[in-house]
Amino acid sequence: MTIFDVSIGALTGGATELDRYRGSVVLVVNVASRCGLTPQYAELQNLWERYRDRGFAVVGVPCDQFGGQEPGTADEIQEFCRTNYGVTFPVTEKVEVNGPGRHPLYRELVGAGDDIQWNFEKFVVAPDGTVAARFAPGTAPDDSELIATIEKLLPH
Asked: What is the spatial distance between Cα 94 and Cα 74, in angstroms, rounded to a whole number?
């Protein structure tokens, strides 16, 4: 099983079909709108626009487990992302990323690893669905190591 086999709701209802990203590089990020790292939304959008035509996707996963920094409803989260950061990449339903209620997506991403540290932790998922790299919340989406990891995995 990989992340491509996991079902997760879309922020706006229905499902975010992760299977459609099979064969692509996916950056999965737990996001929040009231965090000091929230400006990373703009960088994530830029990254998605830069590489989306080359087999790359960003998937934002709202989570309210860190300091209550994502308290909004789905509509509020969507409006915030679009209005403040022009977000057009896929954003899922709000889920738990740690603890007994951890969403299956994060069970796949974390595996036997450590819990998610904070908002904006990043997982680079290879085209085969395996986790290729994990980056700390403070790592900017335009960080050279993160970019190099993505570029190395992109289909040629």
From this structure: 8
